[in-house]
Amino acid sequence: xxxxxxxxxxPALTRSEALGCIPVKNHHVREQRLESGxxxxxxxxxxRPWIVKVSAWLGAAAAPPxxxxxxxxxxxxxxxxxxxxxxxxRAIAAAFAREHRLETREAEVAVTQxxxxxxxxxxxGLR
Length: 127
Known about the structure:
Elements: H1 15-19, E1 23-25, E2 30-33, E3 39-45, H2 49-57, E4 66-72, H3 74-82, H4 89-100, H5 104-120, E5 124-126
Antiparallel strand pairs: 1-5, 2-3, 3-4
Helix pairs in contact: 4-5
């Protein structure tokens, strides 16, 4: 059947399992601290494989590597600083809640949404 076969879908993590995951920074990411104390994340941006193939087929020269930039505000910089490769999402959210006087659930939602966006951009992975 080849391309017509269905992929097996992995079961979604439970909330507890997801909060137990450990976020790990991508080792290709660089950081720059601004005078304001905010952080700028610099990361490599790669073209999708199909775009590279079509460009090569059309005879276009390979595009030079690009660098993406993401400026984090104070709260984002705080969470990014907590990503040490050892702390779970639950521990990071709890520390964030204590530091900013938030309810635990509110901090968990904010931290997981932020980490999800970083993951979507390829800036971190989960263990």
